[in-house]
């Protein structure tokens, strides 16, 4: 049976400075430091521990030279939060990796919490800037000028899942899921094509994918990324690092993006998906699908036949329904899983009948409605910078400017729940242990990363507590233990460390 | 966040037993949708950056992952 689909979302945000030095690295550092200082006034900063990071390992079974390894910028700001998330500077962007969670609904809650953490950071940093100065953050994936930055998902899989089969069978979903989780984009950023080559497309990211499979994340981006860095027991687990998605403003889109992908991955793990929808040319197809808001064009399948993105999605959903019957959906939580299947069906039905009917769920539809409505009202031609401004401002995280907040998007989670998730970890994974220890013993935790915590409890050597099992260290396992431990030293003794 | 909540519709329930629910917004008439869009466009006119074109031109990011 498929493993529980432990997952998480990491988002690189766009950042600009007004009225000051427009250096994105220092602005990102200021933003994060302002948040950490405001929320942990009396606490020391807890650093990130890179000891176990191996981003150059390839899931296909080899390791690249250091010269080709993705950069790990150890000198930059790197904070671990009490909700179990990591908040840091990566490639000149502020980035938040949510804590590990077990369902699409939890992923949504902590992704929304990340958004609110960024909003709070913008407030806190305002007081540190010169009068008139402002740091503005966007939850988007491209600047419209050919520069892209990612919103990645991660999913836990069994090590024995053959990577070749995983890569080929997940690709049809990665190419076509953008019909409901594309964030929408005015214009085109394909190299060598003018911006108005495509007036409006489904995805922020599709123009930037050049390979079917590979290790890169910043150049020649592949649809399936092969980074093999499980942040867990490598004998038992894989972590599929998904770089193909857009950052979503719509809660339903985030929920469906993670929920459907987790189910499709579970089917692949149990070898229940099959090869029905393998694509002839995935790189061409991901662009074709993105460039076609009518959703009517077909892409070529490996057997030479053709299908629309919606037909492929219906095929995957049909398989998922059968899988639910034969295997259940315990690996993604039965009730969340069934809700995901129902909403998946609703969104495909709506897209097929009239995309406008799902404007409350689908970012690209909600945004297109604003862009087209604005163009009609003001008589603006396609290609105008004012339409691109609406695209950009849809993702602006300043509450007073954000157009997504005004676009009539449905919500799935309560504000109070999101607020709580800014400081509290999920209870269902090892992130609970990480977050609670940071909250309870901030002076004694000297470093943290995904799979360990390092304590300094006085005269003894530093103590590393390994967390190689993502589903250990949950509230069920350790809440009482932490509640009853008066100090980190006490906790470590009870843990037998 | 507050605005987002006010605008949420009936499909926001945490209840997962929503199988018989209609697709979002299908019950809304075209006229209601148009009125909504008009309000929305009024609001965009208010909150859109005054120098939107310059903002777009100066919006340059370093590539990331």
Could you outline the blueprint of secondary structure elements for this entry?
The complex is a heterodimer of chains A (about 500) and B (about 60).
Chain A (H helix, E strand, L loop, with lengths): L6 E6 L1 E5 L5 H16 L7 E2 L29 E3 L5 E5 L2 E5 L6 H23 L7 E5 L12 E8 L4 H14 L1 H4 L3 E2 L13 E2 L7 E6 L6 E5 L11 E6 L8 H19 L12 H9 L7 E3 L5 E3 H19 L6 H20 L9 H16 L6 H10 L20 H7 L9 H10 L4 E5 L2 E4 L7 E4 L8 H10 L3 H7 L3
Parallel strand pairs in A: 3-16, 11-12
Antiparallel strand pairs in A: 1-6, 1-8, 2-7, 4-5, 5-6, 8-13, 9-10, 14-15, 16-17, 17-18
Chain B lengths: L1 H5 L23 H18 L4 H7 L7
Supply database-style keywords.
heterodimer, A: 497 residues, alpha+beta, Creatine Kinase, Chain A, domain 2, 2 domains, 6-stranded antiparallel beta sheet, 4-stranded mixed beta sheet, 14 helices, 37% helix, B: 65 residues, mainly alpha, 46% helix, disordered N terminus
């Amino acid at each position: 049976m498929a493993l529980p689909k432990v997952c998480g979302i990491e988002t690189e945000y766009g950042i600009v400075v007004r009225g000051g030095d427009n250096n994105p690295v220092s602005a990102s550092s200021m933003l994060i430091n302002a948040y950490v200082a405001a929320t942990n006034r009396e606490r020391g900063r807890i650093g990130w521990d890179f000891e176990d990071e191996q981003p150059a390992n390839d899931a296909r079974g080899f390791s690249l030279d250091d010269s080709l390894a993705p950069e790990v910028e150890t000198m930059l700001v790197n904070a671990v939060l009490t909700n179990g998330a990591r908040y840091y500077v990566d490639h000149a962007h502020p980035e938040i990796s949510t804590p590990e969670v077990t369902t699409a609904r939890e992923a949504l809650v902590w992704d929304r919490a990340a958004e609110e953490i960024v909003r709070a950071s913008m407030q806190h940093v305002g007081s540190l800037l010169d009068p008139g100065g402002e740091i503005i953050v966007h939850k988007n994936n491209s600047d419209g000028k050919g520069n892209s930055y990612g919103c990645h998902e991660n999913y836990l899989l069994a090590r024995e899942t053959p990577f070749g089969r995983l890569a080929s069978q997940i690709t049809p979903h990665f190419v076509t899921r953008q019909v409901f989780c594309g964030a929408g984009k005015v214009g085109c950023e394909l190299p060598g094509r003018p911006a108005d080559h495509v007036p409006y497309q489904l995805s922020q990211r599709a123009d930037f994918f050049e390979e079917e499979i590979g290790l890169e994340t910043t150049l020649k981006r592949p649809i399936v990324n092969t980074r093999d860095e499980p942040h867990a027991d490598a004998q038992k687990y894989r972590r599929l690092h998904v770089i193909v998605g857009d950052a979503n403003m719509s809660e339903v889109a985030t929920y469906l993006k993670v929920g459907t992908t987790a189910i499709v991955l579970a089917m692949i793990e149990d070898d229940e998906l099959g090869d029905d929808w393998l694509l002839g040319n995935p790189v061409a197809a991901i662009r074709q699908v993105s460039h076609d808001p009518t959703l009517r064009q077909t892409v070529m399948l490996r057997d030479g036949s053709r299908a629309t993105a919606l037909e492929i999605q219906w095929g995957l959903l049909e398989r998922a329904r059968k899988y639910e019957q034969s295997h259940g959906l315990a690996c993604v939580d039965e009730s969340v899983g069934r809700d995901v299947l129902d909403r998946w069906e609703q969104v495909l039905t709506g897209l097929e009948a009239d995309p406008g009917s799902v404007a409350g769920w689908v970012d690209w539809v909600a945004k297109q409605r604003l862009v087209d409505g604005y163009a009609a009202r003001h008589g603006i031609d396609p290609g105008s910078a004012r339409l691109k401004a609406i695209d950009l401002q849809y993702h602006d995280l300043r509450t007073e400017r954000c157009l997504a907040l005004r676009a009539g998007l449905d919500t799935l989670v309560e504000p109070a729940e999101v607020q709580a998730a800014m400081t509290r970890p999920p209870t269902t994974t090892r992130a609970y242990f990480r977050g609670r220890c940071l909250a309870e013993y901030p002076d004694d935790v000297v470093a943290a990363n995904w799979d360990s915590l390092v304590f300094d409890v006085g005269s003894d050597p530093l103590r590393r507590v390994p967390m190689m099992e993502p589903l250990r260290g949950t509230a069920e396992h350790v809440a009482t233990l932490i509640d009853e431990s008066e100090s980190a030293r006490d906790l470590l003794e009870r843990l037998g460390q | 966040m507050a605005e987002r909540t006010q605008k949420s519709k009936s499909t926001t329930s945490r209840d997962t037993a929503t199988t018989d629910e209609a697709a979002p917004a299908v019950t809304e008439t075209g006229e209601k949708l148009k009125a909504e869009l008009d309000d929305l466009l009024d609001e965009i006119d208010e909150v859109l950056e005054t120098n939107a074109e310059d903002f777009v031109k100066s919006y340059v990011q370093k590539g990331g992952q």
